[in-house]
Amino acid sequence: MTSVEAAALAVVALPALAAGALALVGSPRAARTVALGVAVVVAALSLALAARALARPDDPVAGAWLALDAAGGVVLAVDGVVGLVAVLVSPAFLAGRSAAARRSYAMALFAFWSLLLAVPLAGNLAAAWLVVEATTAASALLVGFSGRRHAREAAWK
Predict the structure, then answer these.
(1) What is the pLDDT, as a whole number, of residue 11?
(2) Do the Cβ atoms of 44 and 64 come closer than 8 Å?
(3) 142, containing H or E segment
(4) 65: which of 27, 43, 127, 153 lies 20 to 30 Å off by Cα?
(5) Residues 85-128: pLDDT tens digits?
(6) Distance (Å, whole) CA 37 – CA 56
(7) How far is residue 93 CA from its own chain's centroid?
(8) CA-based torsion, 141, 146, 148, 154: positive or negative
(9) Cβ–Cβ contacts within 10 Å for residue 39, how many?
(10) Closest Cα partner for 34 from 53, 55, 13, 19?
(11) Hey, is 66 helix, strand or coil?
(12) Closest CA to 54 of 72, 78, 35
């Protein structure tokens, strides 16, 4: 496994592992620390992979499960930065919510982010299609999170 493949695997796996870890973390302070730490590392890896792809546009990375070209690098960079921003603003959005609600939100956010980062790295169309469909399901959880009638309706649609 090359360093690029290892970084790509880490970009997808770290948020997925964080989603599971956040289910087990009891303290809200510890959960915020884990979320922020993972988010910074994932964003940095995303930007590093994007920089590699953009620095060598004539030499895309292609493997059995991985493909990274310049266009995918741009999408990966945007996904990494937007995910980091989402993690940074989440505490303000979740103010006044129960610990269980904050945990559920964080799990859904990191699962969605993991899937979103996998899309530009998918090595074939079938894998990309499956991951895009999975992002739809994960995003529905986030859209309906507030529990308001319009949010639930939008999540179902």
Answers:
(1) 95
(2) no
(3) helix 125-143
(4) 43
(5) 999 998 888 888 888 888 888 888 999 999 999 999 998 888 88
(6) 29
(7) 18
(8) negative
(9) 24
(10) 19
(11) strand
(12) 72
DSSP string computed for 81-95 = HHHHHHHHHHHHHTT
The DSSP bridge partners found for residue 66 are 122
- Classify residue 96 as left (phi > 0), alpha (psi -120 to 50) or beta: left
Token look-up 């922020």 returns 36
Reported residue count of the chain is: 157
pLDDT score of 146 more than 70: no
Domain count along the chain: 1
Could you tell me if residue 19 is left (phi over 0), alpha (psi between -120 and 50 degrees) or otherwise beta?
alpha
Residue type, 58: D
Beta bridge partners of 78: none
- Please tell me the chain's helix, strand, coil percentages from 3-state DSSP, rounded to the nearest 5: 80, 5, 15
Q: Which residues pair with 156 in a beta bridge?
A: none
Domain that holds residue 43: 3-156
Is residue 22 exposed (0-12), middle (13-18) or buried (19+ Cβ within 10 Å)? buried
Runs of H (alpha helix) within 25-148:
28-55, 70-93, 99-118, 125-143
Among 67, 74, 22, residue whose Cα is nearest residue 46 = 74
